[in-house]
Write a structure and sequence with these properties.
Serine Threonine Protein Phosphatase 5, Tetratricopeptide repeat, three-stranded antiparallel β-sheet, 3 strands
Length: 330
């Protein structure tokens, strides 16, 4: 008998919980509604709190608890994982109460709504890199925190907002570097250069700057802009001498291959095939100026012999190549 009784209690509790969000508070007093909403917040019953504060706003839009209930509603939406609703409520509070002493809190929660979104289900349980996702919400959050600090530099939320802005700045810089590396894979060297240069110019002090300088130097070399490459490498050597693309003597190491997954590699999730392009895309050594010429040392590449060449013992067909070299005039 215990099992049916337990099952009945569980079903009854579930039914009551589901019906709790459909409570009818019409005709209730303002103070009663506010206290009920706060009580729901205290027990983390976010849907019920949202319902009550919405009802309070509808019945008493200019009551004595109207301003505070708006703030509670922002927090309830935020806690219930409804970032869009939380931001909309914060915007509404800012419009309705521009002289409120809690205006800084509205700006703070507006920024927090998007800041915390990645820390929820996807960010908490899946090994995802937030810097590889769309940075639109991170930019919005950064802008909200910046507005809070500009308008309320002495706010109790300002220090926390500054710390979160540091994280967001690093996140945005990492995203730009990922895009630059993506362009390298597509051999869009000028686009990659522009993205890397944007990081160096706008995200100084972030951990992404050394990698951005490495990309800039390599893209300048690939584009034949050797003077700019030398300047960039000099900056890299002076500021980041332990860069993995620098030798002990300070020489810059140019990549000769880029990621280019084969079809077999893609469908087998990296277990078969290769993700490296066989064709070299850059010289193995930095160009050196010799009597007005720039010599490029190209890595040795092999082109396989044709089937006809193999069958005729080399008499006919394509014999393939073993090495290629190229010399360009400055």
């Amino acid at each position: 008998m215990k099992k049916p009784a337990t099952l009945f209690l569980f079903i009854a509790g579930t039914f009551l919980a589901s019906c709790s969000s459909d409570e009818d508070f019409s005709g209730s007093g303002e103070e009663f509604l506010y206290n009920e909403g706060v009580q729901s917040l205290n027990v983390s019953n976010w849907p019920r709190a949202i319902q009550i504060f919405q009802q309070l706003e509808a019945q008493f839009p200019f009551g004595q608890f109207a301003e505070q209930s708006q703030l509670e509603l922002i927090y309830a939406y935020y806690s219930n994982s409804e970032p869009e609703a939380a931001r909309a409520s914060a915007d509404r509070f800012i419009r309705l109460y521009p002289d409120s002493e809690s205006l800084d809190y509205a700006f703070y929660m507006k920024g927090m709504a998007y800041y915390s979104e990645d820390a929820r289900i996807l960010g908490r349980y899946l090994p995802t890199d937030p810097s590889k996702r769309d940075p639109g919400k991170a930019r919005e959050s950064f802008s909200d925190f910046a507005q809070l600090i500009n308008q309320f530099p002495n706010s109790q939320y300002a220090a926390d907002a500054r710390a979160r802005m540091v994280y967001l700045k690093n996140l945005l810089a990492d995203y730009e570097v990922h895009v630059a590396e993506f362009y390298i894979q597509r051999q869009a060297f000028l686009s990659s250069l522009n993205r890397a240069r944007y990081v160096v110019e706008n995200f100084q002090g972030t951990p992404a700057v050394p990698r951005a300088l490495e990309i800039m130097a390599e893209m300048y070399l690939r584009l034949g802009l050797n003077d700019l490459a030398d300047q960039t490498i000099e900056i890299l050597v002076l500021n980041y001498p332990y860069s993995p693309q620098l030798t002990e003597d300070g020489d810059f190491i140019v990549s000769t291959q880029i990621t280019d997954p084969s079809f077999l590699y893609s469908i087998s999730f990296g277990m078969l095939g290769s993700n490296k392009s066989d064709a070299p895309l850059a010289p193995t050594q930095r160009p050196q100026r010799l009597d007005g010429q720039v010599e490029f040392t190209i890595p040795e590449t092999e082109r396989p012999r044709s089937l006809l060449n193999v069958i005729t013992l080399g008499v006919l067909g394509d014999p393939g190549t073993e090495a290629e070299s190229e010399e360009t005039q400055q």
